[in-house]
């Protein structure tokens, strides 16, 4: 078998990645957008790999690294992904290299990933441990309101997201979750300050 992809690199160690997770609709995108706006040069999102075909205008290496299924599975074998999953018949994953690319630019990689991905990252055999942040909704009722107010989902999709949210909240509450910090997104300004402090520290 091909050798494992090296993961313990100086760049990644110098810029410890941040994993942010939390149920859909909790406010991750909203808070990350603020963070990127406040610190335009400090952070980056990694470019994921996918086996799906590029859509009009999508460029390899920009929206995604577009690869064949064989290439994808070879990288899986080599432990080259910190997390990967299958959706709608296609594979998607975050490679070690993609995280390293951000760190090599002197930026901190922010990984917005769901629960199964969080478990994979935490259990990766040689990827250095990132810092884990969980964003929690104040209650299921409020999460439901936010999902509905976003108005991007049909009823069935909202119910599916709420069920998944329950599973994620249970995981976050269990002793198995790797989270270093849990922030409840009740008041947005307050939640943002807590996230900001966790990520950049008090004095930034
Ligand atoms: N503290 C808050 N108070 C009220 N509304 C909020 C708060 N934070 C976020 N929202 C609203 O909740 C909705 C969901 O937020 P957002 O899209 O950022 O969630 P998300 O966690 O990124 O979801 P997904 O994982 O599905 O992308 C948005 O309409 C957003 O404006």
TrEMBL record:
Record keyword ATP-binding present: yes
GO CC terms in record: cytosol
Entry's Gene Ontology molecular function annotations: ATP binding; GMP kinase activity
InterPro entries with a match to the protein in the record: GK/Ca_channel_bsu, Guanylate_kin-like_dom, Guanylate_kinase, Guanylate_kinase_CS, P-loop_NTPase
Keywords: ATP-binding, Kinase, Nucleotide-binding, Transferase
UniProt xrefs under SMART domains: GuKc
Guanylate kinase-like domain mapped to chain residues: 15-200
Origin: domain of life: Eukaryota
Enzyme Commission designation: 2.7.4.8
Enzymatic class: transferase
Pfam families in the record: Guanylate_kin (PF00625)
Keyword Transferase set for record: yes
Family: Belongs to the guanylate kinase family.
Protein name as it appears in the record: Guanylate kinase
Organism whose genome encodes this protein: Clohesyomyces aquaticus
């Amino acid at each position: 078998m091909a050798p494992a992809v090296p993961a313990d690199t100086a760049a990644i160690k110098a810029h410890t990645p941040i994993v942010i997770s939390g149920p859909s609709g909790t406010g991750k995108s909203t808070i990350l957008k603020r963070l990127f706006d406040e610190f335009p040069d400090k952070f980056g999102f990694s470019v994921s790999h996918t086996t799906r075909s590029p859509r009009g205008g999508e460029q390899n290496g920009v929206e995604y690294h577009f690869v064949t299924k064989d290439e994808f599975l070879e990288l899986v074998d080599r432990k080259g992904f910190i997390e990967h999953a299958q959706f709608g018949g296609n594979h998607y994953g975050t490679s070690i290299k993609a995280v390293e690319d951000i760190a090599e630019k002197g930026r901190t990689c922010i990984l917005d990933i769901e629960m199964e991905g969080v478990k994979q990252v935490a259990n990766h055999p040689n990827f250095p441990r990132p810092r884990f942040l969980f964003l929690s909704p104040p209650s299921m009722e409020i999460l439901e309101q936010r999902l509905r107010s976003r108005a991007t989902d049909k009823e069935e999709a909202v119910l599916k997201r709420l069920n998944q949210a329950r599973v994620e909240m249970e995981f976050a509450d269990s002793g198995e979750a790797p989270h270093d910090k849990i922030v409840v997104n009740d008041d947005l300004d307050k939640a943002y300050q807590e996230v900001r402090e966790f990520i950049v520290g008090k004095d930034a």
